[in-house]
């Protein structure tokens, strides 16, 4: 494989103009496709096979409920007045009349006629139903809806809106810009060259652009959530920059290899690009594969929007890998030696014209400083047991809050306090109780003509349960074979008490069916959907981990030719993800440092965040495992003792791995600025998880464990060694073939065979 990528890197470098044109044509094609085929995103949850989803489908078929957009317009009386006052009634009714005249609006309930006035008389609401779906509501209709409240406001009546129709668009530009700015600084410090620092940013942005345009095309055929683009941008920037960083770092090393006496003389650009792609590029491919596997494996959860988000993000990662293997070496061809710091460029020119001079004043050669990575590795190897114990204890302490993890779906209660959705949510909760923001819907299905009577039996039973504030009279369809009850709980939709109420109603289903002559009862609504999502994710977590870890263990065995190294890698990942869960609960659920991170409201963690976090963190953790340990193995297979291989591998890769981690942390942390609670919490958890995994697990625990294991750490049974193909990620066979070719003044042709050296210096 390393030989294949070596040839690909050289070909891309040699035919750089053609490679650049191909990528530009590809970008233009995706742009044209997105312009012609893109569709709207949707935040509607679909849970095929769940009780709540089946009940929603029945409501849509029999009553049209859930298929069209709806909004609650919330009215609040000024000062000590009530909505029963003549002026207030006039203002509210005038607003209702104006709402009924709005485009695309089907019906508007008068709060006085619908008895939607709170007991204290200060709060009321009007239900507005549209004739079209949420994403078919035009911008003009939204603007007219918001303007309709001005009539009541002029009379002193407060007006707020609750519903997805009025959800305000979130701006992610600030988050992305901050992450890119920090990444640019880290790259400049790491490389000391504007060209080298700019290339990873350029290729990452191109990869994200292709990914986002691809999502636009896919949205025309699939149901994608509004968070998909933010996730793709977040992940695409992080891995795109990191993958380019590793390839460029190896390319620079190959250009200046003569500064290391153990290496052959410095190479021309084309040869350096080939070797960089053949070695670091091979690691990029396997690192990318682990991320792609982790994301596409979300399909085992059987929640369509999670599957779609995972596949979309995986596609962007795949684009980042392809760019690193093809476009990046082409751009390196255009940049030439400008990717080196100015001092190294001067030395490179000196070598070519024979005027190379020693560095330092008066021709004195300055003693080389020991790289920090080598000093760190020697310290870890020397004190491997304390380093391992302290690191595990630190990660374990960070993971403790995860024991208090509570899951729920996001709602307006976690929106920004100044948003109209949050104001409406709070006003409704204050006037009617928290349950008004998430009523349960009980669906009763019977033979024709029996639904109303059966629903009355169900109403009497449900009304007698704890935590029930009210149950509306049954509403039946024309054939009276389906009826619906609305149940207002005493607590909010994310409350554990409301989930227990859902379980209590469902526990009566068997008895109700017997008593109602075959009647069927099902429960839906936000709390019921929340419960079903949580249970489905819980049921899928172990199979998901088994799929992801199983594939990754096989891949890592292929890469490292070892049994214990992949197992150690998986154990380190579990430690990282546990610490990330703990930090997420500590900040977003328990509320510590909430003001520092701009968290408007704390509460349960979004239901699907944990499993998504597991998938992404696993892939990223394996990135650093592959990049770091592959260099250690490269030293080991070239004859170094185990401890010496650890130190040498860390010397070459620690600086780059640290820079890559800082870049990824900064990109993820930038999204903490987002207003969307899902994006904010995911950005925080990923930033913290990468920090723990890269800086604690991979930079400390990994070298300590490798040192403790010694040679047995690289053991692979002979029978397994014969079965597993040798993919040569570290480039051992490539190095031998190139060394052999070099002794005879030859290069490798397209088939990896030797040919005379006629390429020349480029």
Discrete helix count: 25
Total number of beta strands? 13
Q: Helix/strand/pairing class, anyone?
A: alpha+beta
Termini Cα gap: 25 Å
Top CATH class of the domain at 1-37 and 192-349: Mainly Alpha
Low-confidence stretches: 259-264, 350-365, 748-762
Any chance you could write out the topology, listing elements then pairs?
Blueprint: H1 2-14, H2 16-37, H3 51-63, E1 70-76, H4 86-100, E2 105-108, E3 123-130, H5 139-148, H6 150-154, E4 158-162, H7 173-191, H8 194-219, H9 227-255, H10 269-296, H11 304-335, H12 342-353, H13 372-382, H14 384-399, E5 407-408, H15 420-432, E6 440-445, H16 451-463, E7 468-471, E8 475-476, E9 482-489, H17 496-507, H18 509-515, E10 520-525, H19 526-560, H20 564-589, E11 605-606, H21 609-637, H22 642-670, H23 677-709, H24 718-723, H25 732-743, E12 746-748, E13 754-756
Parallel strand pairs: 5-11
Antiparallel strand pairs: 1-3, 1-4, 2-3, 6-9, 6-10, 7-9, 8-9, 12-13
Keywords:
762 residues, alpha+beta, Alpha-Beta Plaits, 5-stranded antiparallel beta sheet, 4-stranded antiparallel beta sheet, 25 helices, 13 strands
């Amino acid at each position: 494989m390393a030989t294949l990528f070596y040839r690909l890197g050289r070909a891309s470098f040699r035919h750089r103009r053609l490679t650049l044109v191909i990528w530009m044509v590809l970008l233009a094609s995706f742009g044209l496709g997105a312009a012609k085929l893109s569709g709207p995103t949707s935040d509607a949850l679909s849970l095929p096979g769940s009780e709540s989803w089946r009940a929603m489908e029945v409501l849509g078929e029999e009553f049209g409920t859930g298929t069209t957009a709806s909004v609650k317009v919330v009215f609040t009386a000024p000062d000590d007045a009530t909505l029963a006052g003549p002026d207030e009634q006039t203002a509210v009714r005038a607003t209702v009349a104006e709402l009924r005249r709005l485009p695309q609006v089907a019906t508007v309930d008068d709060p006085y006629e619908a008895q939607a006035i709170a007991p204290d008389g200060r709060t009321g609401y009007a239900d507005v139903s549209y004739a079209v779906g949420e994403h078919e509501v035009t911008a003009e209709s939204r603007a007219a809806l918001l303007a309709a409240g001005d009539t009541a406001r002029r009379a002193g009546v407060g007006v707020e809106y609750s519903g997805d129709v009025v959800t305000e668009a979130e701006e992610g530009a600030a988050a992305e810009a901050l992450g890119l700015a920090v990444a640019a600084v880290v790259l400049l410090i790491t490389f000391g060259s504007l060209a080298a620092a700019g290339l990873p940013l350029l290729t990452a942005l191109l990869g994200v652009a292709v990914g986002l345009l691809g999502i636009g095309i896919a949205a025309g055929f699939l149901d994608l959530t509004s968070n998909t683009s933010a996730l793709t941008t977040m992940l695409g920037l992080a891995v795109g920059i990191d993958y380019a960083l590793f390839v460029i770092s190896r390319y620079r090393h190959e250009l200046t290899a003569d500064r290391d006496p153990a290496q052959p003389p410095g190479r021309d650009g084309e040869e350096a690009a080939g070797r960089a792609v053949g070695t670091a590029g091979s690691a990029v491919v396997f690192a990318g594969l682990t991320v792609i596997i982790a994301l596409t494996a979300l399909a085992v959860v059987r929640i369509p929007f999670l599957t779609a988000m995972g596949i979309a993000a995986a596609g962007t990662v795949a684009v980042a890998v392809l760019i690193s293997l093809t476009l990046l070496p082409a751009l390196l061809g255009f940049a030439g030696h400008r990717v080196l710091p100015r001092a190294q460029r001067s030395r490179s020119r000196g070598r070519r014209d024979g005027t190379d001079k020693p560095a330092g004043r008066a021709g004195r050669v300055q003693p080389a400083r020991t790289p920090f990575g080598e000093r760190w590795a020697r310290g870890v190897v020397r004190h491997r047991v304390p380093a391992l114990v302290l690191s595990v204890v630190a990660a374990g302490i960070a993971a403790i809050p995860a024991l208090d993890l509570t899951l729920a779906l996001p709602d307006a209660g976690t929106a920004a306090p100044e948003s109209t959705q949050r104001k409406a949510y709070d006003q409704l909760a204050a006037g009617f109780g928290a349950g008004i923001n998430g009523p349960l819907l009980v669906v009763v299905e019977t033979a024709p003509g029996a639904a109303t009577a059966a629903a009355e039996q169900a109403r009497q039973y449900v009304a007698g349960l704890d935590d029930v504030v009210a149950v509306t009279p049954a509403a039946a369809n024309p054939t009276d074979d389906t009826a619906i009850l609305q149940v207002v709980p005493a607590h909010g939709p994310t409350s554990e008490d409301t989930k227990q109420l859902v379980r209590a109603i469902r526990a009566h289903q068997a008895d109700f069916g017997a008593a109602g002559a075959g009647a069927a009862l099902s429960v839906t609504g936000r709390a019921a959907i929340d419960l079903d999502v949580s249970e489905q994710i819980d049921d899928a977590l172990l199979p998901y981990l088994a799929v992801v870890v199983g594939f990754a263990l096989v891949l890592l065995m292929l890469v490292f030719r070892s049994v214990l190294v992949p197992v150690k890698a998986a154990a380190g990942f579990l430690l990282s993800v546990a610490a990330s869960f703990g930090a997420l609960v500590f900040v977003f659920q328990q509320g510590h440092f909430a003001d520092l991170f701009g968290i408007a409201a704390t509460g349960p963690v979004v239901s699907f965040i944990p499993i998504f976090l597991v998938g992404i963190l696993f892939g990223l953790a394996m990135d650093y495992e592959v990049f770091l340990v592959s260099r250690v193995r490269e030293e080991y297979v070239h004859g170094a003792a185990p401890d010496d291989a650890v130190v040498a591998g860390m010397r070459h890769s620690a600086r780059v791995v640290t820079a890559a981690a800082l870049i990824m942390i900064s990109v993820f942390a930038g999204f903490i600025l987002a207003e969307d609670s899902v994006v904010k919490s995911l950005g925080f958890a990923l930033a913290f998880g990468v920090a723990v995994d890269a800086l604690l697990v991979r930079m400390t625990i990994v070298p300590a464990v490798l040192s403790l294991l010694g040679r047995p750490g690289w053991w692979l049974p002979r029978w397994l060694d014969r079965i597993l193909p040798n993919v040569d990620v570290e480039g051992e066979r490539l190095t031998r073939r190139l060394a052999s070719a070099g002794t005879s003044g030859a290069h490798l042709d397209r088939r990896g065979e030797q040919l005379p050296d006629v390429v020349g210096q480029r």
